[in-house]
Amino acid sequence: MISSDDESVVLRINGIDTTYRRSRIASIKVLPPIEDRYLILRESLPDSDIDGRLLLVDWLRDRRAYELAIQELDSILEVEPNHPQAKTLKTWLEQHLKLAQSRSERKPKQATPNRRPVKATEPTLTAEQINLIRVYEIDLDNPPKFIIDNDTIRELIARSPEKFPVDEKAREAILDGTDLDKLKLLFRHRARDLYQKVRILEDPDSFKDFKQHIAGKTGWMINSCATVRCHGGENAGELRLISYNPNSPESLYSNFVIIDQFKLKDGSPLINHTEPDRSPLVHLGMVRSRSLYPHPELDPTKFGRDWKPVFRSTNATNFKRTTEWIRSLYTPRPDYGFNYPLQPATPNTDPGEPPTSPEP
């Protein structure tokens, strides 16, 4: 149904808007939103029923629910990576979605009461704070591009000369080593105050995943939790996420610190680093009947609509991706020396363990 009043009802049939006089209509039954109907249909299909799931993709495509259809195809391709029909459908849907989004962007946008301001009003992390987080999240087996100046290593040697070779040539050999060798040296000596001098030039793998699947423009969190009707708007409550320019390092890393440090009213952290599958972060997005932390009921008159689940179960693709991402984060969690909302840094005598080096 497109619109309805006392005189007529407008329905969209095969892409064409058709008007019917209400006097000629015996009754009207409004179906649940497509997302709800999709969840019900999907729950009836086992993951192994690829043919049935492809029929569900066609059902979503007919209703122009392209993003849900692509999400379902991603899940199918995890089961059968080389399924020809699934691969073809995904390519078609991705191109069709880009075209639809391009057309939407060209249309003049009308101001709405829920639209966020053009510029972000929430505080975001500085470049130095973002760099520090990247240092702690480096995977030494697959590090991002980074640079360590020799002056940083000279400073490390000067402060603890007893821990380095007496021979000058041996010390110079350290400076001739790779940046990765120098980074391991900083970690091994726990020179936390020097971490900020390591210049990280790109996101570590954990934050590439965070950007792509969770908090970036294509992630479930930014599209479900950080909308203006939820934790990205005026009625966000205590958990307030940044939805402006989500792919920017400032928004991405600020949102990470927000969810990493946030605690529920009972003191439970939003992210359970010990048991990721039990994290409230994912359970608050799950169908209430299956969740350990059911999402609170919302007032539709205040939020414009009821809350919609992101995950149908613990087997949902994005649920698994998110818990795997949590496992990929460095533990034990370091103390960065700042909290959100951002406050001036205070002297920190025990900032936590440094990233683990494979060397003793």
Strand fraction equals: 5-15%
N-to-C order of helices and strands? EEEHHHHHEHHHEHHHHHH
- Count all strands and give the number: 5
The average pLDDT value, as a whole number, equals 80
CA-atom Rg in angstroms: 25 Å
The number of helices is 14
Q: Given the helix and strand composition, which structural class is it?
A: mainly alpha
For the biggest sheet, the summary is: 3 strands, antiparallel
Order the strands across the largest sheet as they lie in space: 1-2-3
What coarse outline follows from CA principal-axis ratios?
elongated
Count of domains = 4
Helix fraction by DSSP (H/I, runs of at least 4): 40-55%
Low-confidence blocks of residues: 109-120, 343-360
How far apart, in Å, are the first and last alpha carbons?
66 Å
Account of the 3D structure:
- The protein has 360 residues and is mainly α.
- It folds into 4 domains: 1-30, no CATH class; 33-106, Serine Threonine Protein Phosphatase 5, Tetratricopeptide repeat (Alpha Horseshoe), CATH 1.25.40; 145-200, no CATH class; 205-328, no CATH class.
- Helix content is 41%, strand content 5%.
- It is built from 14 helices and 5 strands.
- It has helices spanning 34-43, 50-62, 66-79, 84-106, 127-136, 150-159, 168-175, 179-188, 205-215, 220-225, 249-261, 280-283, 300-303, 317-328, and strands at 3-4, 8-13, 16-21, 146-147, 199-200.
- The strands form 2 sheets. It has a 3-stranded antiparallel sheet with strand order 1-2-3, with no helix packed on it. A two-stranded antiparallel ribbon has the order 4-5.
- A hairpin with a 3-residue loop joins strand 1 and strand 2.
- Helix 9 (205-215) crosses helix 11 (249-261).
- The chain starts with a strand and ends in a 32-residue tail after the last helix.
- Mean pLDDT is 80; it is low at 109-120 and 343-360.
